[in-house]
Specification:
The complex is a heterotrimer. By secondary structure, chain A is an alpha+beta fold. Chain A has 16 helices and 21 strands. By secondary structure, chain B is an all-alpha fold. The mean pLDDT of chain B is 82. Classes of the chains: A alpha+beta, B mainly alpha, C mainly alpha.
């Protein structure tokens, strides 16, 4: 309870300090955690490129990361037709791209054409796809664009937050941008340098041009410890998401720089392979297909210990697909299951398992033993696996842990299905569950426990299919929410994914950065980059 | 003269052949390693089924190994080395960007390591004694026992440049070989005789010991260059130095066959060339 | 005289560590995998002599069990690699000709090849539910089989030197048989080089295993080895706060130094 209060006080202090101390200009310096694979906003699919896209790209509608509400950006207003297939934007006038090319409805049309081109295979474009057919864009005036989709799209306006507008005419192509910064320099493997976009449309309340900062230097740095070292030395002003252990240590040293934005959207989850194509013995398939077995495993895992030990307390136990910080979609009516190894054992006995000499055996006398795979190089996941190993040994189950490098792991879970159980994280950038269609539909590629089914293997999967399709076309958000609440209920009864934890969003912000308000939504620490300022003296920032 | 040209041409051909063989072998290793043709993007649930299919198909282009190799050779003749599957950029530009970084750190690292190793070994010859021996043994033993990864982490922590880390990694091995070589040379009967006759230490070292040890020294020079390039891979990957080593590590983790093939070709060429130069020097010396 | 004492001392230390590793089961106060969840990252105390790791496992228990794995398997891999290097390098150096060229080219090649993939393929070929001990042994065997190239050139250079040396000419001239030359003259003369290579490669294999376990190819949890204990060092700023985490590194350095101090004895007897 103290921490949010402290942060609040800090924010208030910073807000007070702003008019006095802060000034415009300066360079904000922080790290990307991988090589940005592309600067073309249409093709972006990795986190580093997504960060650059957020910093450089201009969109029609912006999702306010703090209020979780939509705000006008390049479009001053928009409306959706009654059949919910057409969205009409009224665009801001007199706007220019970073290279001086003017912006108009033709650019919107051009962007949508590229996005929806079936040959592009853009993650952003694919989220707009709702049915067969093409997307039409009308441009009745230079400041009006109407986009018509072949079928209604659930949560349509929100999707435009990702659709960065490209210039149809600029000779610089995708390097001409409408966002607060543009890419001025890039050295592969080393850094990306962003300069202030002189043509950025947004102004502050006093009418001064934004952003306040002149440039942003993004170092490409995979090693988080090096990043922390450099932050400590004052070379970096921001760490966008710290590991819990690092956060704990930093907070110990200098509580003024650490900020916990609260429980994030990402979850770590555990699942058993239920694919009929898996080359596993029949008795194992029988266990994994058993609802009681999965529920017992879920009950026998001590999530509170996971949070406390693996994440130093900076995580919350997770029981369902929606994080509690996703206020609208979280199903608060569902009861949190308790950690209860004895109850798990009772459940297993009822399902026909036998507990003899501290080992669990099935009806036929096979010892219950399975292997959990996870990706190597992720210390937290390896620890989770090792802890689950000890938790399950208490109900007589022997667990082996194997770590594989990512490509080998993906091959196993998507191609050969030669694995018993897997622990992976679900990266969730989207609040709306419609984005997870491919996870919940039994025909989906990302329906990890049994992907790409011709027809649903179980009655409950069939029901989820139906509910997911219905929520996509339901006319009101309230009805959609009712459908998805039911999906969450089925998932908690069946435990196809055993959710483990939701990590807190942990960031570090140097005192010299004024106005930073880290939030749980991507991009966490710098979502309001255009209004960030740099204090005059890095070491004076907070105290004044 | 003619014979010499023939020899040089023969050596260059050999170099090219070994390099290409290396490329082919590494391409096959990648091709048959688990997880080949898998893209992390497949797990992105925002992608539609059609897009996932398309990503999978894009990786199948290279699955015919021999035809891929044929294409590669045909392209390479025209100076086109293909493009990276993972970064979607031409490989020649990737290597052009990064090779100078690695070459500089490797060369500086090797020079530093040799300088220090030679100085200490020569000093050992002049100040033979128990404490000197034990302390140098201890230092080199501690350095040998330090994992390259730990050296890399320390170098980041202490803000030392990458070449210092490379030097620290190769120095102890270098030093041990050097000292053994010198000890071996000094135990030769005619050197013992020379010392008995009272010839000065430096004269013995420079006109008797070094010529005797020089073939092995040159072989060692070649090896140390090759080792430096080998050590650069983990060190650059850990220090995030934007060199070939970091690129190779990333390429391996992403199963980027064209990139790995070209990088192997490059590293093979460097290793073989370094060793060849060592051999030539050695033959001259004999 | 001084050196002799030092040598004896190192030998004693090595033996002690080795015995400790062999009898880990009786020496260790706890099983290596037991998690004391109420005290993760604890400082050394009378209950946990070296403190606990981030999951609350007793570090002392893990260290001595890890010693067993590493001190048995790394030397085995080093022996395998040195033998291969000795045979191939000795052969190349003594026989010369195209044989030498081929062996050297193969060495250069295998030093440049991304052998990481061989290890990845091995891990994928092994079934997932294989016991940790078996998978460790497979990994170390492969490391030994792949580890010869780095020693080969040194052995080869030494062998070549020998071929041109006077006493071998003499031996040949006096009509000694080939096998006799190899056993009586070559091997004893190559021995110091081979020993040096052997000792030098032990830590190399311990460390390679450490790197591999980061890739999921090394010793798998919960079995400890020096390699995966060294992974605790990755987080260097945590180490400066809890210096006892350095204990695996200290042990490794100690063992390597002892090996090195013993080494001159063999050199002199050669």
């Amino acid at each position: 309870m103290l921490r949010p209060l402290k942060n609040l006080a800090l924010t208030a202090l910073l807000a007070l300090a702003l008019p006095v101390r802060a000034q415009t200009g300066g360079e904000l310096h922080f790290c990307l955690h991988g090589e940005p694979k592309t600067f073309n906003p249409i093709l972006v699919d990795d986190e580093a490129s997504e960060n650059v896209r957020y910093l450089t790209g201009g969109v029609l509608i912006r999702l306010n990361r703090q209020t979780q509400a939509l705000e006008p950006a390049l479009a001053t207003s928009w409306n959706i037709s009654r059949d919910r297939r057409t969205i009409t934007f009224h665009l801001r006038k007199g706007i220019h791209f970073s290279d001086g090319t003017s912006f108009g409805s033709e650019d919107v049309a051009y962007t949508m054409r590229l996005l929806m081109d079936p040959a592009t295979h853009s993650t952003t474009g694919d989220s707009f796809r709702s049915g067969e057919g093409t997307v039409q864009v009308q441009t009745p005036a230079p400041d009006v664009a109407a986009i018509t989709f072949p079928a209604p799209v659930a949560g349509l306006e929100r999707l435009f937050d990702q659709a960065v507008i490209l210039s149809a005419h600029s000779p610089k192509k995708e390097m001409a941008v409408l966002g607060p910064f543009y890419v001025a320099d890039y050295k592969a493997g080393s850094y990306v340098l962003l300069q202030k976009n002189p043509h950025y449309w947004k102004r502050d309340a006093q009418g001064r041009a934004l952003p306040y900062i002149d440039s942003v230097r993004l170092d490409i740095q995979r090693n988080r410890d090096i990043e922390l070292l450099r932050f400590r030395r004052g070379e970096l002003q921001l760490i966008n998401r710290l590991e819990a252990e690092q956060f704990e240590r930093l907070e110990h040293e200098n509580p003024a720089v650490t900020r916990n934005a609260g429980t994030g959207l990402d979850a770590e989850e555990f699942w058993f392979s239920q694919s009929p194509a898996a080359p596993l013995p029949a008795y194992k398939k029988a266990w994994f297909g058993m609802k009681e077995f999965r529920k017992a495993i879920s009950m026998a895992i001590n999530r509170a210990d996971l949070c406390r030990i693996v994440y130093s307390g900076y995580a919350k136990p997770a029981y369902g697909p929606v994080s509690p910080s996703n206020h609208f979609w979280f199903n608060a009516a569902l009861e949190d299951p308790k950690y209860d190894p004895q109850g798990a054992l009772r459940l297993l006995m009822q399902a026909g398992f036998r507990f003899e000499n501290d080992t669990l055996k099935d009806r036929a006398g096979n010892r219950v033993e399975f292997t959990v795979v996870t990706n190597s190089g992720n210390a937290a996941r390896e620890k989770i696996a090792t802890m689950i190993q000890q938790d399950l040994s208490q109900v007589g189950i022997k667990v082996n842990v194997v770590t594989l490098d990512f490509p080998s792991l993906i091959e196993k879970i998507t191609r050969t299905f030669d694995y018993d159980a897997c622990i992976l994280g679900l990266v969730n950038t989207d609040l709306d569950p419609n984005g997870q269609m491919n996870v919940w539909l039994s025909s989906g590629e990302n329906h990890q426990w049994n992907p790409s089914q011709k027809s649903p293997a179980t009655a409950w999967e069939a029901e989820i299919d139906k509910l997911m399709r219905e929520q996509a076309t339901a006319p009101t958000e309230k009805e959609r929410k009712a459908k998805f609440d039911r999906v969450q209920q089925i998932v908690s009864e069946q435990q196809p994914f055993i959710y483990l934890i939701n990590k807190d969003v942990l960031v570090a912000v140097a005192p010299s950065v004024v106005g930073a308000v880290p939030v749980v939504l991507d991009p966490w620490a710098f979502w309001n980059v255009d209004t960030l300022r740099l204090g005059p003296a890095p070491d004076l920032g907070v105290q004044k | 003269m003619r014979a010499r040209i023939q020899r040089v041409v023969g050596r260059l051909l050999m170099l090219a052949a070994v390099g290409l063989l290396g490329g082919l072998l590494s391409a096959s290793l990648v091709r048959f390693s688990p997880g080949y043709g898998v893209d992390e993007q497949e797990l992105d649930f925002r992608l539609s089924q059609a897009s996932v299919e398309a990503i999978r198909n894009s990786h199948r282009i290279h699955s015919g190994l021999l035809s891929y190799y044929g294409h590669y050779l045909a392209g390479a003749i025209h100076g086109d080395f293909g493009s990276s599957q993972w970064l979607q950029r031409p490989i020649s530009s990737l290597i052009k960007e990064r090779f100078p970084v690695t070459a500089k750190s490797a060369l500086l690292g090797v020079s530093l390591a040799w300088l220090v190793a030679l100085l200490i070994s020569f000093a050992g010859v002049f100040f033979r004694g128990f404490y000197f021996d034990v302390s140098t043994t201890l230092i080199s033993a501690v350095l040998i026992a330090l994992p390259a990864a730990v050296v890399a982490i320390f170098s980041v922590y202490l803000r030392a440049p990458v070449f210092v880390a490379i030097a620290v990694v190769i120095f102890p091995k270098l030093f041990r070989y050097l000292r053994n070589l010198l000890n071996h040379a000094y135990s030769q009967p005619y050197i013992l005789a020379a010392r008995a006759r009272g010839i000065s230490q430096s004269r013995i070292l420079f006109s008797h010991v070094l010529p005797l040890a020089s073939p092995a020294l040159f072989a060692l020079l070649g090896v140390s260059l090759a080792v430096a390039f080998g050590a650069a891979i983990p060190i650059e990957a850990l220090c995030d130095s934007p060199g070939v080593g970091q690129l190779a590590w990333q390429a391996a983790l992403n199963r980027d066959m064209p990139l790995i093939m070209n990088l192997t070709l490059l590293v093979t060429l460097i290793t073989v060339a370094a060793n060849m130069l060592a051999n030539i020097a050695q033959e001259r010396a004999l | 005289m001084n050196t002799g004492k030092l040598r004896v001392f190192s030998a004693v230390v090595l033996c002690a560590i080795f015995v400790l590793g062999l009898f880990a089961g009786t020496v260790s106060p706890y099983p290596y995998a037991k998690q004391f969840r109420e005290c993760p990252n604890a400082a050394p105390s009378s209950a946990h002599w070296l403190g606990t790791d981030s999951l609350g496992r007793d570090l002392f228990a893990r260290l001595i069990y890890g010693t067993r794995v590493s001190l048995l398997l790394a030397p085995a891999a080093a022996l395998l690699a040195t033998m291969l290097a000795g045979i191939l390098g000795g052969f190349a150096g003594l026989v010369g000709g195209w044989c030498e060229k081929v062996i050297l080219a193969a060495t250069d090649l295998s030093m440049a090849l991304p052998l990481l993939f061989v290890l990845l393929a091995l891990r994928a070929l092994l079934p997932l539910d294989i016991s940790p001990v078996l998978s460790v042994m497979a990994t170390f065997t492969l490391l030994g089989l792949l580890g010869w190239p780095s020693s080969l050139r040194v052995v080869w250079a030494a062998a070549k030197n020998l071929r041109n040396s006077d006493f071998l000419l003499l031996a040949r001239a006096t009509g000694s048989r080939r096998s006799r030359i190899i056993v009586r003259h070559l091997f004893p003369n190559l021995r110091p080089v081979l020993f040096a290579q052997f000792w030098v490669s032990i830590p190399v294999f311990v460390l390679t295993e450490a790197t591999l376990s980061m890739l999921g190819l090394g010793v798998i949890e919960p079995l400890p080895s020096w390699g995966n204990l060294l992974r605790g060092l990755e987080d260097i700023s945590a180490v400066s706060a809890n210096p006892w985490r350095l204990s695996p590194l200290v042990l490794l350095v100690l063992v390597v130094i002892c090996f090195q101090l013993i080494l001159p004895a063999q050199e002199e007897t050669a």
